[in-house]
Structures are given as C-alpha cells and as structure tokens.
Amino acid sequence: MHKAKVFIVDDEPGMLEVCADTLAKLDDVEVAVESNGNQAVKRLTGEESWDLLITDIRMPDIHGVDLLRIARRHDPNLVVLMLTAFPTVETAVESMKLGAADYLTKPFLPDDLRATVRRLLEQRRLREENNLLQRQVERSNRFGDMIGCSEPMRRVFDTVQRVAPNDVDVLILGETGTGKELVARSIHQQSGRKDNRFVPVDCGAIPEALLESEFFGHERGAFSGADTRSLGLMEFADGGTFFLDEIGQLPINLQAKLLRALQERRIRRVGGTQEIELDVRVIAATSLNLEQEIAEQRFRADLFYRINVARIDLPPLRDRAEDIALLARHFVQRHAGEMGHKQINITPEALEVLCSYRWPGNVRELQNAIRRALAMTRDSELRPDDLPTELVIAAGDVGCGKDHGLFELRDQHVTDFERQYLAQLMQRHQGDVVAAVGEAKVPRGTLYRLLKKHDLNPADFRFDDAGQQI
Ligand SMILES: Nc1ncnc2c1ncn2[C@@H]1O[C@H](COP(=O)(O)OP(=O)(O)OP(=O)(O)O)[C@@H](O)[C@H]1O
Prior knowledge:
Strand content: 5-15%
InterPro entries: AAA+_ATPase, AAA_lid_NorR, CheY-like_superfamily, Homeodomain-like_sf, P-loop_NTPase, Sig_transdc_resp-reg_receiver, Sigma_54_int, Sigma_54_int_dom_ATP-bd_1
Bound molecules: adenosine-5'-triphosphate
Shape: elongated
CATH topology of the largest domain: Rossmann fold
Protein name: Sigma-54-dependent transcriptional regulator
CATH superfamily of the largest domain: P-loop containing nucleotide triphosphate hydrolases
Domain Sigma-54 factor interaction: 146-375
Strand order of the largest sheet: 2-1-3-4-5
Structural class: alpha/beta
Largest sheet: 5 strands, parallel
CATH class of the largest domain: Alpha Beta
Domain Response regulatory: 5-121
Keywords: ATP-binding, DNA-binding, Nucleotide-binding, Phosphoprotein, Transcription, Transcription regulation
Oligomer: single chain
Number of domains: 3
C-alpha cells in the first residue's frame, strides 16, 4: 500500500512526539519529524517528496508562515496544515492566502488531528485522481496539436484526416483565433509533404507594394533597391505547403496573379522572363465571408472556386461549449509549467465563468485569459477572481447590474486592473522593482504601496535560468 508521507515541524520535542504517536495509528501514513527550522527547510526543499506538512507557526528559528511559503514554492501541490497556540486572524488569513489547507489551534484532541489529516490526505488523493483522469480525457480528445471533444471539432478532425493525404488545395474558414493555422499545419503534417516546408504568409500583414515580390520573388534590378535576386515565398515552399492566411485581404490585382500561378503551377519572378515550375500545395484561410466579398467585388469568384476544392469550417468557440473546459485545462497544464507552477486546478466556479463567456477572440483569447490568470494566481487553484475582469463581468458575477451600482463596478474594475497590471509588470521584470518603476512611471514608494495592497511579493516573480523560482 502507498503510504502518505507526513512531515511534522515543531520546536517542542514533546509536541512532536504526541503528534507522531497520534498519526502512527493511521496505518496508511508514514511520519517524519523535525524540531530544527533549518533542517526542516533542507528536507522540504531537497529530494524527498512529501504529501503533507504539519507545521507550528511560532518557532524560535523560523516562522511557520515562512516555512509554508518556502515549502509551497518548492512544491505547489504540498498540502500544509498549520498548528498554532496563539491564533490571530492575520496569521490565519495569511496562511490561507499562501495556500495552507487548514489550521488547528493548540491544544487539540488526538482525534481532531487524525480526522483533519485524514480529510486533507483524502482531498489530495481525489485531486491527484482527478488530474490523472483529466490527462486521460485530454489524450483521447487530442488530434495532433489540436484539442476538442465537441461534435463539430470531431468532424473537423475527420475532414483533416481525409483531405490531408490527397494533395488537394484546401480552404479553411473561421473567425479569428479558431485555430485555422493549426488545422493547416496539421494537414501539412499528415500529408506526403511533411518533410518539406510549411510556409505561412499573412496576406493582410504585407504592404501592398511588396506583395508581388514577396510571393513570387524578384530578379536583380527588377526595381530600385533590388540589388540581388530574391526567392519568393511560393518558391520557398516548393515541394511543401504554402499557407495563405487571411486570403480575403489580398488586393484584387494580386488575386489575378495568384490565380494564374495556382492554375499553371508556375510563377515568374518580378522582373524575370523565365517561368519556374513549382510543386506547391496551397491551403488558404480567411475569417471573412468570401461569398459576400465576391458580391461586393472585393474577391474574385474564379479564385474562390479554385481554392474552394476542399473546405473546412471551424466553428466559433461559443458554439462548442464542451471544448471550453477541455481547452482551459489543457492551457493551464501547458502554461503553468512555463511559469514555474507545478500543478494547478481550475475551480468549478472559474470553469463556470469561462463557459458562460462568448469568446469573440475564440481559442486564442481563451489561451491568453488562462495565461493572464496564471500570472495572478498564488496557489494551486485558479479561481474566478484570478480571471480577467471582463470575463467575470460578462458571466454576471460582478456586473449583472442590479446588485452593483456604477461606482462600485468602476472601483472593482480599477482594482482588478491594478492587480493584473502589477502582476504582469512584475512578471515582465522578473520581480526587479527598479526596472518596474521605470516602466510604470510611478515613484518607488507608490509601487511598493500598490504591491502591498494587492498582496504581491516581487520575490515571487524571480526565477533562475532553469525557470525555478528563487
Ligand atoms: N483546437 C485547439 N486546440 C489547441 N489549441 C488551439 C486550438 N485551436 C486554436 N488553438 C490555439 O489558439 C491560438 C490561435 O490559433 P490559430 O493561430 O491557429 O488561429 P487562427 O484561426 O489562424 O487565427 P487568425 O485568424 O487570427 O490568424 C494558437 O495558439 C493555437 O495553438
């Protein structure tokens, strides 16, 4: 049987003995004790892994709250039970904020200690099981880098699988951030071209005057400034896949040239006379309604028919609510590691907020919201107040109006904004207050006061080269 490892820290040897004896009666628990603060820090930050830390608050060589902070920084999943003979509201609140699971006031009955430990270990076991299940669920709802369990996404995965090996051109339609580029990459990855290049180009991002030479390349001397011959993106993609993102924004004169290149699979560099044969698969994507663009004569119908050989419609995130929780958990897992957190759970209340928002920026917006929330959270749970304010308001938590007046809502906004701003500022400067003062353009004292107000500690944002918090 796996025994839960419990570590008890108290400066009084008598107390350690009583606690150890009490817990020894639980047969699935293994107990270690320590009365010296420095030794306790060493064991908590060393190789050993612990399930539960029980620590006294008042000790001569280390304060229990500091031990809690150090231990949870090393292992954010560690469950901590605080013991105190002098309960003060501030210490209790501070301990809870730093992630203590509970606290017991001395003196306590052995049964109370046993019951509390049993409950905390059970909670931890359930959380771990839950994480394991989540990982299994995610594995079965994964298609390459794409995640989705909703019916529309399953259809998308199915279509990708069918069109990928067939070398036909593909048109992907969907609002911004729905994953069009991810789908295009996935098609490339599952095609016979996967060992050659995938060349993406954002048609809306290249200045019109440069588009033709960017696409088709140019010969030396083709125009002033062209001192060398240059390959175009399409030629660069020879043998592979050319991904035209936002094709709806391509100027009409270039549409004609692209159509010709697609029909003949040949191009001519700007200023060149020779035709160059190319073997390129084209995948185009747009968030515009191309039929309407054609009706308004901004998009050529013949180009539309040429690229609309196989078509994939990516539904907006709000129409596939089942995917929201799955994606949110996936992003939490992915980005928590990058930010130095070990394992973070989303509370059911936070999931409810995420699921009732409309996500105009779709999956990209969800991913960013999770990143921002992770920067705000200080313990192993992501709660509604860690989420960007606009989501919480839209979900009705703060802002249904009838319970909150204009000024109250405004103050709430300002407070949330301040907290988010400061957390991101600290993150950008890795806890360097001098650099943060420079960017925020406020006196140092003001910055310290605001950090204190929002209970943010610059030290929590300092990481070493390996990404570990220092
Ligand atoms: N189903 C999904 N599973 C996992 N991540 C996804 C999914 N859909 C989108 N993403 C992520 O969301 C972000 C936006 O996706 P992507 O760039 O493919 O969207 P897009 O539709 O091409 O956006 P735009 O129209 O703005 O170019 C990316 O970081 C991508 O990895």
